[in-house]
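Bug: token stream looks shifted between consecutive jobs. Job 1:
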Amino acid sequence: MANNSNLGAAKAAKNDEFYTQYADIQKEVNAYLEYNPDTFRDKTVLLPCDDPEWSNFTRFFAQNFERLGLKRLISTSYAVESKKYKDYEPTLFETESPLFDVDKTRIKGKIFELTRDTNGNGRIDIDDLEWHYLEGDGDFRSPEVCELRDEADIIVTNPPFSLFREFIAWIMDGKKQFLILGNMNAIHYKEVFPLIQSNQIWSGIGFNLSMVYKAAYKNILEANQKFVRSKGYDPDDNYIKVPGVCWYTNLDHGRRHEPLKLMSMRDNLKYSKHKEIRENGYPKYANYDAIDVCYTDSIPDDYEGVMGVPDSFLGKYCPEQFEIIGMGSGEFCKGLGAIPYNMILSGVALQKMNDLRPNYGAVFLIDSNGMPKLPYSRLIIRKKQQQ
């Protein structure tokens, strides 16, 4: 993933403390409401992996409780001492509460709930949140948070990127609807791709985004600081740009059913805005019966065979138009029947491919000099077959 130094810094600091901006949550949720205004109506929404005092997820859903028609909002936090990042000061919200316990606050998770108008002002909003300490540390895998999961209808959060595999498995085990943020590279995880391929999960409205987060460490990259300032945030307040961020969901939305507007192969070869397509066309892989399409907008709408397309295709994927039949690299490529490169190449060409160190079965091209060329990660698709 390009420009991932901030994610690297997060790993070096051993934390996943990224706080999503209110406007990003609002933009994504509103798109589902445009498709179905009742998406959240009469639903219990759980926000795990949250810090309710700081989280814009809690703020958004609490402030829009009545507009969304929620039945119940639950938000849970992870205990400070159980986090990898422990630079923490309790908020006035917590310390001024009669429930505050200086010992519990560092070792116990917290739960915030919103169901009713507690202050009698005639509306249900963030001022009506009620909270108490959990019995445990608030880990989403703990029995008490699993119980909350089982009570919920929809799970919404920004889980720690380092625990994304486990979090997806936790959601699927509970058979819940969800809307969560993750890294674009997550589509390559063995725990995630089969769910995408079988249309059990899909991309949200926002896909492959460069998002501005509030982080737990200083933004020290000049180019990153410039981007953050261009979006109206001050990097001195620990705002950072994180590229390759995606919403993942199993909630339906309108864009998911909008077919890509594409040209025929003949028109692409003649009129494509991409010089590479006009000059090189659609080369075939050396070890798999499919053509390579290096740009999503250059997919030919009249090609009936198999195609390798960029990962970014997933953000435009319409299941009524195409089907995903595999992935062109890693373990998933084995099931495609791609021929291992050492059965095709020899000599210098084989040595070059060995130097590239592809995973077993990666699809590859042969250039004009007879040398192997390994395209960047590819999803393997074909036009939807008529039943």
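Job 2, same session, no restart:
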Amino acid sequence: MMLPHRAEIAAALKGLALLLRGNPQALHFYDLSLDGFWRSFLAPLLCLAAYLLLQPMNAEETEIWGDSRLGFVLFQGLEYLLAWGAYFAAIAALSRSFGLGHRFAVFVVLYNWAQAIVTAASLPVLAGSLFGILPAGTLVGWSSGMLLLWVYVVVQLARIGLGAALSLAVGASVLDLVVSILMHRLLGLVL
């Protein structure tokens, strides 16, 4: 399996632009083959690595991890991967129960690419905050805006990728947030 190439990244950007407008033609911009399915996991993983390295620690995390930046990054990465897997397991079950199981792989490809693009868009803001180029409040505002955008993105992914009705698509988006929050809380209990 090869890393995603420039043309595939450009196609994913065009596809996401169409997805945001609710255009089902977006599917034509993604490699929905089995190889494309597995390769779609690479882009978000690469972006995740950069994201975690740039992620600032808040006061509570600094108290827990102290000078162990590596421990913080590994723990955050584990939390992310567990939430990602749990969300996909929940969506697989949900899509099967609504007769949309045959579209699950399409949803995963779209989700992974959208996640990579949204994460990549956050990297310059994270870097600017980490290195003191941007004021500290910028990151809070950016994160809030990106969260709202992500809720909308997942609704569109579910509508187009799964072929879900609007109510189910909203449920898929809310489920994404709930799984992330629950995983954060569960792993927080470990610390």
